[in-house]
Amino acid sequence: MTYTAEKPDPAESSEQLRARIPGWGVDLDPKDRPSFPREQLIEDRTGAHWDFPERQAGGERRERSIEHGMLPPVFGTVAPLHGVSGVLRRLAYRKYSEAHTLHWLLLVAGDRVDSLGSSVTSVLRGKPDNPLTETGILIEPRAHGLSSRLGRNRVDVKHQWMDPLIVGTPWVLRAGVVYLAVRGLRRGR
Amino acid sequence: MQAMVYRGPYRIRVEEKDIPRIEHPNDAIIRVTLAAICGSDLHLYHGMLPDTRVGTTFGHEFIGVVHEVGSSVQNLKVGDRVMVPFNIFCGTCFYCARGLYSNCHNVNPNATAVGAIYGYSHTAGGYDGGQAEYVRVPFADVGPALIPDWMADEDAVLLTDATATGYFGAQLGDIAEGDTVVVFGAGPVGLSAALSSWLMGAGRVIVIDHLDYRLEKARTMAHAETCNFGEYDDIVVHLKRLTDHLGADVAIDAAGAEADGGFLQHISSSKLKLQGGSPVAVNWAIDSVRKGGTVSIMGAYGPLFSQVKLGDAVNKGLTLRMNQCPVKRQWPRLFEHVKNGYIRPSDMVTHRIPLEHIAEGYHMFSAKLDGCIKPLIVPSAS
Ligand SMILES: NC(=O)c1ccc[n+]([C@@H]2O[C@H](COP(=O)([O-])OP(=O)(O)OC[C@H]3O[C@@H](n4cnc5c(N)ncnc54)[C@H](O)[C@@H]3O)[C@@H](O)[C@H]2O)c1
Ligand SMILES: [Zn+2]
Ligand SMILES: [Zn+2]
Fold this sequence. Notes:
Chain A is mainly α. Chain A has six helices and no strands.
């Protein structure tokens, strides 16, 4: 009992559990648990044959956290910085550490600009975004959208009415911006 | 090649991309034969992680065949069937040398607080992921492992993240014989954590969610007791009642940044992105565990602040433990458990979706439709 010294008796003994659940207790000894102890120098380098890896080429313009002492030897090269979103993101990296909220807020702003800008360029490139296929909602009838949600004690049903607004409003705004941008570009020509 | 491409929050499509090239002598290019969508991908999909760039391909759970290797690769050859941990890591930095592969310092320029993860935004290094026909795998001599002959593909792909993470989460709980463990979230990570808790000698395992079909899985697959938190005014009080008002010895958060059950917390994080993640499940864990107990956090959160109840954690003398899972560290022991049939990862697979229809897969998994627990992605070439 909680208000006295003993721990409450378990409903099932270890023997009962071992009989009921395949593998019960095989990792009872912490030494058998792969993440124990948490930190110790280990011999196994899981296949690495270097002390410090060779450096990947092409890192000259690569943005990095100012908490790093140098550019790490290996990095991702997807979607390099470009355009207005690139300016915002580069500012976030150059100026503010990860400890600084502005670092993250600038990156979030960059994300929104990136996604808006790419809607415009995708129209110009003849591959416009398609709300029906890109949101995946066409699967609703096949995935039993209504019966999956209703009458099932799901707490998310309380706010799912917002989802069309949260997903839909940006589509409407984007469509407006794309229309204005494309019209502006046509006139400019 | 065909690849899933991010266009913005709630918008993805399949595009033609160039097959990735070798960019470093220890790179390999893998032809993906099977991939999966993870609960973590949903946080990206909903636009919750800063610096998620348009054009990025997601996917950090995948297996495949080696298509090309860089000049310094010794341990893999073209044609090998491999499983790839979701962490990208070098094997020799301060952290890797101590087995903390998920915290590698040599692979992510964009952040020092995050290791590198395939297809998980620039905040996690700016790499493309495996929801595509081909993917670049850095440090090919270090991360990937050959898929053992006896292992099924659907088990192998889940061992690259979800199952390994659940197993790791149970370990961070420091479970002792007879302990009561409560797991928040009955997704693939929570189900794996619940099942793993028994292997470490738990005396009682209780799984919490609001999705009955997932709780059903927790009972059948993970032998757990379950509670639907939607049925209780206050799940913390209910858990206290269930545990003689002591509380659980260990609580595991397997819900993460979009935890539901607190309207304002959920809306302010998942929908409005005003905090790094909804702290509902973490706070329930803190409040329902007993004094002196351990909270293991497997849920993923964004880098902005969240309203976590630190005061309760301090006053209760709790141990809070958390990390991204260092996947490869789990494998030798976890493979034995799979071989012995103690853990059957593929039991959680509910859907197999062709890569062309991945947008529908994301929507279904995100909205939790059609009994979805774990959707796999099958590239057209495979
Ligand atoms: N640390 C790591 O290495 C690591 C690895 C993989 C996944 N993750 C994270 O683990 C979490 C779970 O992943 P998953 O693939 O199982 O996702 P999932 O979306 O399939 O499952 C999450 C479950 O949590 C439930 N849930 C929501 N709010 C809850 C609450 N307040 N209490 C209890 N349950 C609640 C949901 O209904 C859902 O069933 C995610 O946040 C994911 O990002 C972390
Ligand atoms: Zn994951
Ligand atoms: Zn490292």
